[in-house]
Amino acid sequence: ACAFAGLWNCVTINPLNIAAGVWMMLNAFVLFLCEAPFCCQFIEFANAVSARADKLRPWQKAAFYCGMAVFPVMLSLTLTTLFGNAIAFATGVLYGLSALGKKGDAISYARIHQQQKQMDEEKLTGALEGQA
C-alpha cells in the first residue's frame, strides 16, 4: 500500500508530493527488507538487513517505523500520504505495544495492591505506637 500510494503520489508536478512519494516507496522497500526478506531474495544484502533489524528492541523498531511513516505526511499532507503510511505507522504502533509487555492479570494486581495496603497500615501503626 505504501509503495503504490508513493507511486501515485509521484504523478504530479508538486515537488513536495514527489519527494513524499519517493520517501514512501523507500519506506515500503525498507519494510520489505526488515519484515519480509523472503520477498527480496534477489537482493544479496536482504538477509543481513533483516538479521540486523531482528536484533533491535521492539521500542526501537516502533520509533523507527513510526518516524519513517510520519516524515512523508509532514512533507505533503494529502489523503494519499495518510492512507499510504497508515500500514507503516500501524506496524510501529504494534511494535510499541509489544514493547509495553503483556497485560497483567487482575489476581496478581489485587495481591500487590493488598500487600502494599498492608505495609502502609503497618507503617502507620508503627508510627502511632512510637508517638505514644
Automatic annotation (TrEMBL):
Keyword list, A-Z: Membrane, Transmembrane, Transmembrane helix
GO cellular component, one term: endomembrane system
A Pfam family of this chain: Cg6151-P
Ranges that cross the membrane: 22-43, 64-95
The organism's place on the tree of life at top rank: Eukaryota
Protein location: Endomembrane system
Cleavable signal peptide: none
Membrane topology qualifier: Multi-pass membrane protein
GO biological process assignments: vesicle-mediated transport
Protein family per UniProt: Belongs to the calcium channel flower family.
Identification of the protein by name: FLOWR protein
Lineage: Eukaryota, Metazoa, Chordata, Craniata, Vertebrata
Gene, per the UniProt record: Cacfd1
